[in-house]
Design a protein that fits this description.
With about 425 residues, the chain is α+β, with helices and mostly antiparallel strands. Helix content is about 55%, strand content about 5%. The protein has helices spanning about 20-65, 110-120, 125-130, 135-145, 160-180, 185-210, 230-235, 240-245, 250-265, 285-295, 305, 310-325, 335-345, 350-355, 365-370, 375-385, 390-410; strands spanning about 80, 90-95, 100-105, 145-150, 220-225. Strand 1 and strand 2 form a beta hairpin. The radius of gyration is 24 Å and the shape is globular. About 30% of the residues are buried.
Length: about 425
């Protein structure tokens, strides 16, 4: 495995020869001050990134509201890509294996619609995996049923838009719960700040909606839905498959399913958590956990490192291994342990424990005694019913379904294909 550099604080090397105790004490104090200063700057950088990310998200939503009364954006459940003029969008649902093309402009022919979609700079890369040529896209649009849907007034969707903010709030809460590096008081403070942030964003949304006209520019949406091609999953994963094949083939379907759910195989993916890369590693949480337990280093990976597919998969697979062989190792049934590991990858082992402990304790050892009395189907059902956050319940369902899809497809792929290329 290749070695990669880690971003280290500037700490001096020091040889102690005939040095007084006072001088050494002063040196240690200076070391501590430098490390503390680095840590504060590190956290501030990520706080700034998060603030900028959410500001961009809200700004793009406001731009979409000029045209779309429901300005959906990508989530863990669906990918949404808009055309440059924001008047068309592609919604890819990889659970149902469907793609929906929606447009606000009416087109006289399918050929004109396909031409507009396939030449748009924003949509082109997404369409390459679905219908790479105009003729193929025309054929897909032709066999799909065209539907005209009326757009609602903006204020009728106020609750839906506020729910998007609440979902991101829950994702952030889940990330705090997952972060084993935080002390209890730090976790409480972080959650209090998230409550304030959520309310500020909802207030800003409400203000924005109150100043807009009640109607969007376009009254109707033309919608067409068709199936994703059979080779879609293989096309998505093939640029990175050799990186995954460095690990046990038994683990491969789960690695692919988690990567797919986290980033849809976008090596440059980033989120408001903040998390980065194919398997959406949070540097100062899962990243630091892996650095300490796997690499024996006390420094988190940088975003630049996590944008490298090989490095990112190394961290993601190592974190799954930590969950499986450390935090959840006492769960006897391997399928039950896998379900719990998927949930813990999203929300942490403590929230998995809360789903089973009647007093909502985060004590995983107490929860494991309950888990071991259940069969794997009951464990899955219990997690879906009792996990603290709806987002994690959806995540578990999606990863479980994707893993089954990859398990079924992997046997048909030529995993020794020498023509598979790495995309860096």
């Amino acid at each position: 495995m290749r070695h990669f550099s880690l971003f280290l604080p500037l700490l001096c090397t020091f040889t102690v020869t005939n040095i007084s105790a006072n001088t050494f004490t002063e040196f240690k104090k200076q070391q501590l001050l430098e490390a503390t200063s680095f840590s504060k700057q590190y956290k501030q950088d990520y706080a700034n990134f998060r603030e900028a990310y959410l500001a961009d998200y809200d700004s793009f939503r406001d731009s979409l509201l000029k045209h779309w009364s429901v300005p959906i954006q990508s989530s863990t459940l669906k990918q949404v890509v808009y055309s440059a003029d924001l008047k068309s969008r592609i919604i890819i649902d990889e659970q149902s294996m469907t793609v929906t093309v929606e447009t606000l402009d009416s087109h006289s022919t399918l050929g004109q619609a396909a031409e507009t979609l396939i030449t748009d700079k924003n949509l082109a890369s997404s369409l390459e995996l679905i219908s790479p040529t105009k003729q193929e896209l025309e054929n897909s649009l032709a066999i799909s049923k065209s539907e005209i849907k009326s757009q609602k007034e903006l204020k009728q969707n106020q609750e839906t838009l506020a729910q998007e903010i609440t979902t991101q709030y829950e994702q952030s809460l889940s990330s705090v719960d997952k972060n084993t590096q935080l002390k209890p008081q730090q976790a409480i403070q972080s959650k209090q700040q998230l409550v304030i942030e959520k309310q500020q964003r909802i207030d800003k949304l409400n203000t924005s909606l109150s100043t807009k006209d009640n109607d969007v520019t376009y009254k109707n949406i033309t919608s067409r839905t068709f199936s994703l091609p059979d080779e879609y999953l293989h096309k998505k994963v093939s640029p990175y498959l050799n990186f995954y094949l460095q690990y046990e083939q038994q683990q491969l379907p789960l690695l692919l399913a988690i990567s797919h759910a986290e980033s849809s195989f976008n090596p440059n993916a980033k989120s408001h958590i903040p998390a980065f890369g194919l398997m959406q590693i949070v540097p100062n949480s899962a990243g630091l956990d892996v650095a300490r337990k796997h690499f024996k280093k006390d420094i988190a990976p940088t975003p630049e490192e996590l944008f490298d597919p090989d490095t990112n998969i190394t961290y993601g697979s190592a974190y799954i291994s930590i969950l499986d062989k450390s935090y959840l190792r006492k769960i006897k049934d391997p399928i039950s342990r896998k379900y719990c590991a998927i949930a813990a990858y999203n929300t942490g082992a403590g929230n998995v424990a809360k789903a089973f402990n009647t007093d909502k304790s985060r004590n995983i050892n107490r929860a494991i005694s309950i888990i071991n009395d259940l069969d794997s189907e009951s464990v899955y059902s219990h997690l879906i019913a009792n996990l603290p956050y709806d987002e994690t319940k959806k995540y578990l369902k999606k990863v479980n379904k994707l893993e089954q899809q990859y398990q079924a497809n992997i046997n048909q792929w030529n995993l020794n294909n020498k023509e598979i290329k790495h995309e860096k």
